[in-house]
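protien #1 (seq + structre)
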Amino acid sequence: MNDLFSSFGFGWTMSKVLPYALFLLLGIVMTLLVRRKSSNRKVRISAWLLTVVPFLVYFMGNPIYESDFANDYSIVDPADEISEMDHLTVIAIPNCPYCHEALDRLLKIQERTSSVNIDFKVLSTDSLALDQYLEKAKGRINIVLESDFVPFETISKSRFPTYVFTSSAETRIWHNDQIGTRAFDWLEGELSG
């Protein structure tokens, strides 16, 4: 459902929050309808339980995690390996399910911002490791094989994927558990401007 709201142009945070709000609103409407239609006092009182049922059902299928709304970046000196200004680089490794999810997000960001300032660096010496990402990116994002691991492992602290945004003022780094909808909204704003 997040993708539906995102396709209507809502930001990452609003696309995450709106489904929960709508299901809560649905519960309130259901409660009011049951209370209006029933004259039985017990039914009318127990109808208030309906208020949270749609919300809970949606929540069970789509739980909210602490990092979903995170924007817990760290600021470092500009990295020589990632020196382009106003540029987003994601450091990934082969066969990483979280890196595949990151690529999905990057494709969405690229689609919404039309930015060409996005790189996806895969740490590997095997060029075949790129195939899975190249196929998914379909040429819309710059996928790069990076065989010099040392500087990127220092930046990523061996946590993948790692998002790095370099501007003239600073270099921000997010690891996978530190980046959420608020960070993606911020990144889109920076890449759009």
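ok now protien #2
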Amino acid sequence: MSQVLLIDYGASRIKSILYNSIDDQPIALFESAGSFIKYGNYSKIPGSFFSKSLILHLDYYSDKISILRKDCDLKIYLCSEMHGFCLLEQDSFNSTFYYSWRFKEKSTDSALEILNNRGFYSKTRMISRAGLPVVNILARSLNNELGTNSTFLTLPQLICRELGDHYNLACKTLLHSSGFYTDLGAKEDTLDITGIDLPISFPSPIDDYQKPLGFIAYKSNQYNLYLGFGDLQAAFLGSNLAQNEILINIGTGSQIISNSRNNSTFGLEERPFFNNEKLKCVTHIPAGRFLNSWCKFYDTLNSNNNFWKELSQLTYEDLEGFNIDIKFDLYLDSESEYFEQIDDLTSSNSRITPKVLLASLMISFCNQYLSYLEDSISKNSRIILGGGIPNKVPVIADIIEKKMKRKVRIKKNEHDLTLIGLRDFINRGF
């Protein structure tokens, strides 16, 4: 018998749950700050942050782990946000950093041009964008800043290296999201994708999920670490959707996801799944981080403002009448200048009340998803909203339902979809 620790390395929150047996009810839950909360956008993150976070979680469960019988074990299964990497260069093995998709190297535009000219999308079924590992590393190479004999690590490998050792294996879901792998994560093909023979060694895709990726040492014990797949796949698996259902997962970030057998045509990208299946999706849609920035801005406009409380109370009737256009592209280009424009607008126009501002925000927020879904989903497909934001702000479901003229269901779960997905993966024995 083994105790099981499931942990999701999210950008805003690192969440974990402990089971005495995977078939039992959980005995404890814990969460800590994620890398975005700790380091913000655009920063490289000390590799030790993730290993220290795991120790923090293990310490929390320490009294429950320490009572294990000698014939018991602790198995650790994890998922993480995607599109991040660590690059161990020969002369910097004692100083490691992790780069999330929020980090952007110089020469990113040149790197993107090279990848697009070489047919990046057709080879990977993934849209090229700033922040992808392949983009950041290619940009570093163009700047002559790439060392020799480097080693590429995914986040689970980095944690194992910091606390024990890794076996140079990684899940295809994370490998594919790096942009260096074709066949949906099954084959590393750096030269064909970038046109450059980069001096980097890459991990092999794990072929048996019963095998550990590596091990970590904790209080004189060694515990194996397993799975290490992407949070997109974990959330979809945890949603337990039928073939005709489409998930809009809205948390810190957001995605629209369905099984590739769904007849809808919204999917801009394909991502690997399990049992030789694949997902079609739209990713990198601004969500929780965007709304948190709005919260800070909105609450400074008036001392009586309470962003999340007022959003949660917003009704569909509040959206009718006068509204303003919230331009997401302007916000993404320059957050501070954008909020200055909104501040000036509210000061000069008495019609823009706090409720008008929030109603306008929600309409524009939902229009992101509607722009992908309208005229692009099959007649019998159902829309499911998952993640923390729809549960906090139910008017999102009302807007999408009215605009799409079909029933929208908010998925209510006791635990995060990613943690449910990790547990389902184990129970289903992929």
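The chain has a mean pLDDT of 90.
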